[in-house]
Every structure is written in C-alpha cells, then in structure tokens.
Amino acid sequence: MLNVAFTGDATAREPAIRELWGGALCLSGAQRTEVELRKLQERAQKEIKDQYSASVDERAGHIEIGFRMARPELQREVDEKYGKGLVTLKGLLAPVRP
After folding, report:
1. What is the pLDDT of residues 34-54, one digit of tens each?
2. For the whole model, what pTM was predicted?
3. pLDDT at 85 (0 to 100)
4. Residue 26 pairs with which residues in a beta bridge?
5. Residue closest to 54 by CA, chosen among 33, 76, 23, 78
6. Residue 69 to residues 20, 77, 94: CA-CA distances in angstroms?
7. Looking at the structure, do residues 73 and 62 belong to the same domain, yes or no?
8. Quick one: 26 and 40 in the same domain?
9. Range of 98's domain?
10. Is residue 41 domain-shared with residue 88, that is, in the same domain?
C-alpha cells in the first residue's frame, strides 16, 4: 500500500502516480505542505521558550513541541499565536489535580 498526501486535488495526481505504481494506493489531502510545516517548526523553536524538542507530524498536519510540563494556559497562548491545533504541546509531566 502506497500512501501519498497532497495539498490541492489529490485525485488529479493519480494518473501520474499510476505510471510508476500499480499496487494498492491511498491518496489523501493535506492542508499544508511538508515544507510549510518545517518552516513553522523552525519558527516555533525560535519563539517558544523552555522546550526540549520539536517535530513535524506530517500525517496529522501539525507541529509537536515537547516540554517537561505543557501547561494548558501555554497551549491557549500557542493556539492564539499559530492557530488552534497547528502547534501541539506535549508534556512529560501532567499537572496534579485534586
């Protein structure tokens, strides 16, 4: 199974892919290109402090930023700055709730 994602009309690309691939094929759409996501990753790494990692999740179409503890208020700030769901904060630790 070959999985290929495109921005724009993914099905319009199928004939060109079929010239090279005759097996099972899954075409899906994407909102942003990998290049756009990588540029956003670089920007977020420069602008968001106290992170320990940053990566692109091409399939989900967002950036993941690693923190020791990802506070909900920081996620809200990041959502306001970059757009809801585009940059996701992942924490090693979770806040303790009574």
Report:
1. 999 999 999 999 999 999 999
2. 0.78
3. 93
4. 3
5. 78
6. 46, 15, 6
7. yes
8. no
9. 32-98
10. yes
